[in-house]
Amino acid sequence: MLTRRLIPCLDVIRGRVTKGVRFQNNVDLGDPVEIARRYYLDGCDELVVYDITASAERRPTDLDMVARVARAVRIPFAVGGGISSTDDMARALAAGAEKISVNSLAVLHPEIIAEGARAFGSQCMVLGMDPAATADRARCPSGYEVTIRGFRERTGLDAVEWARRAADLGVGEIVVNSVDADGTRSGFELNITRQIAEAVPVPVVASGGAGCAAHLRDVFVEAKADAAIVAGILHTGATTVARLKAELAEMGVPVRRDAGGKTP
């Protein structure tokens, strides 16, 4: 098994990190730069920073925040929210991000994936997708339907088919954020994560539901995820990146112990 990555996610509203359950009942957790720096020093492999109200507010990503995070850490991080064109991508990358995450925009305008991949390389393009369980197997044979606009709108797209199409368009990584598990800390949605991991030739990142190291082990071993996003259990201090990695290593899951701000 290849080394697995742990990726803290920072959902940002009006310059502050927030966390909720299924995008609701969000609470303020602090300054994104300070939090990013803390997770970096604790050994995380990468970061994801979502400016989650930028698109709804019809404004670009907070580039000042992106630049400040870039100065605070020395690991790759992805930026999402407020991205509507390759020009937006270029500005975020110039500010210090190494990856661009697109979600609803890519569903509505799939060509943005190919345009971004041509302009900056597939390694820069991350597809975020929010699949929800559905009983409509006629439209969605996988049993999961893609949702957009913060889980609020169902699209009729089958999650596995959309993942395949995005990979064909040039996306370099796919984040599978389960609508049903988001923020619950009850474990990742293994079924859809495994289906997508087996269907595409690019790395798959599991998101939504991390509650303990055992959940991470399950999604790495059983669902074949290449990486996992963790948020709530870190934000509340229930555990740390270093502790999760130590527990995973004890379970036989290979992780980088010299990642982030750690030294070999």
SSE order and pairing:
Elements: E1 5-13, E2 16-21, E3 24-30, H1 32-41, E4 47-51, H2 63-72, E5 77-80, H3 86-95, E6 99-102, H4 104-108, H5 111-120, E7 125-133, E8 144-148, E9 153-158, H6 159-169, E10 173-177, H7 190-199, E11 204-207, H8 213-221, E12 227-230, H9 232-235, H10 241-250
Parallel strand pairs: 1-4, 1-12, 4-5, 5-6, 6-7, 7-10, 10-11, 11-12
Antiparallel strand pairs: 1-2, 2-3, 7-8, 8-9
Helix pairs in contact: 1-2, 6-7, 8-10
What does this entry look like structurally?
This protein is of the alpha/beta class and 264 residues long. It has one domain (5-250): TIM Barrel. 34% of the residues lie in helices and 26% in strands. It has 10 helices and 12 strands. It has helices at 32-41, 63-72, 86-95, 104-108, 111-120, 159-169, 190-199, 213-221, 232-235, 241-250, and strands spanning 5-13, 16-21, 24-30, 47-51, 77-80, 99-102, 125-133, 144-148, 153-158, 173-177, 204-207, 227-230. It has an 8-stranded parallel β-barrel, surrounded by 6 helices. α3 links the parallel β5 and β6 (99-102). The model has no long low-confidence stretch (mean pLDDT 93).
